[in-house]
Amino acid sequence: xxxxxxxxxxxxxxxxxxxxxxxxxxxxxxxxxxxxxxxxxxxxxxxxxxxxxxxxxxxxxxxxxxxxxxxxxxxxxxxxxxxxxxxxxxxxxxxxxxxxxxxxxxxxxxxxxxxxxxxxxxxxxxxxxxxxxxxxxxxxxxxxxxxxxxxxxxxxxxxxxxxxxxxxxxxxxxxxxxxxxxxxxxxxxxxxxxxxxxxxxxxxxxxxxxxxxxxxxx
Length: 218
Known about the structure:
Keywords: 4Fe-4S, DNA damage, DNA repair, DNA-binding, Glycosidase, Hydrolase, Iron, Iron-sulfur, Lyase, Metal-binding. It is an enzyme of class 4 (lyase). 59% of the residues lie in helices and 0% in strands. The chain is mostly helical. The chain folds into two domains: 3-20 and 137-213, Orthogonal Bundle (Endonuclease Iii, domain 2), CATH 1.10.1670.10; 30-131, Endonuclease III, domain 1 (Orthogonal Bundle), CATH 1.10.340.30.
């Protein structure tokens, strides 16, 4: 089985294994998605959703974030970690959206990257989820760990892993690759993986080695 066929098999099985969406950032508007994604850096989606529940009720527009008291914002996002930077990002996002984009979240990748705290990973997610426009595969901590273990890449940086995965999958599947790899990374392919319970063990070179030698894979 060549790499492209194996990649297709992996995604097909993961879709069957995780038919329901896992715990991801909850949102109802593009602005809420941007805020949630920025807060999710180095933080669990579960914690982000706890924080954004009252936050989204209080700050409903970009201008509201732009006019927010920075110390108040710091307290409100404190539990997501790196709260000073994140509060500054949120206020900066509000200010830029209000002044440059008439309060609306822009619909292009290049413009999204102008927003404070928005990386390529974040921008790819926002484009796919908010605007149904896949622009690339977002590589988070789980994808960074899972993709090399599955033998889909030999790289270990987000940019290079994303580029290689994008060659293996159609653009319509980019978001599914991200989300299903994340769910698999949370459930099975953890830092200390549960290879014996994995539906991919027969197509995963790391699992084959682990099951043969009894050693923990890295």
